[in-house]
Amino acid sequence: xxxxxxxxxxxxxxxxxxxxxxxxxxxxxxxxxxxxxxxxxxxxxxxxxxxxxxxxxxxxxxxxxxxxxxxxxxxxxxxxxxxxxxxxxxxxxxxxxxxxxxxxxxxxxxxxxxxxxxxxxxxxxxxxxxxxxxxxxxxxxxxxxxxxxxxxxxxxxxxxxxxxxxxxxxxxxxxxxxxxxxxxxxxxxxxxxxxxxxxxxxxxxxxxxxxxxxxxxxxxxxxxxxxxxxxxxxxxxxxxxxxxxxxxxxxxxxxxxxxxx
Length: 261
What we know:
Distance between the termini: 80 Å
CATH superfamily of the largest domain: Periplasmic binding protein-like II
CATH topology of the largest domain: D-Maltodextrin-Binding Protein, domain 2
Helix content: 40-55%
Largest sheet: 10 strands, mixed
Structural class: alpha/beta
CATH class of the largest domain: Alpha Beta
CATH architecture of the largest domain: 3-Layer(aba) Sandwich
Order of helices and strands: HEEEEHEHEHEEEHEHEHEHEHH
Number of domains: 2
Mean pLDDT: 90
Low-confidence stretches: 1-26
Strand content: 25-35%
């Protein structure tokens, strides 16, 4: 009799604990991993404390809270970021990614949230009166004979290849793992110009001996990328973007990261 009661008690206890465990799992928020470019300010980067920061980082964190999911943000090499998404090691890319037809063949994008053009950056020199002036203008900066630095796997690389190299303009294209590395080489004279997204250009040259001499009007639009067919996450992100754009938080983040001093 004692053994029978003990067995019944053990079974009941096991069922009770299992129920609690199921309730706990059911109550957990879904976790999505966001892959970012670690050197793409002001949209995404790793700050001096080793933490993700930037406009897209804060937007996605706000959306996660609003739409009731958890988000983990991890840095990924840009030229590997879409393959990393496709094999499932990350769930989304929220990092200033331009929506292009080639990328649409591999991933699904949210509704657009920002528009940019490409900027051409050159070094600044100093005249006899001590006033800074650009080494080249926008035309001479990307003319034949110049070496132009861009980040590998970006629309900057695509534009230079399609509009200069493929058209027979004798420029040398130098590829970097990040835009910031291209700027570093520009400052020490290893390249004559660097081409990158305009908001990133402004952030990258702040307080440095370089200047934007003009923009290439590409009219690119940014979106967040998810795996093909991940309609649930795509819907969450689109609804989250809709809500944040209708809130004061959107204006605050735009002012903080994109148009503020």
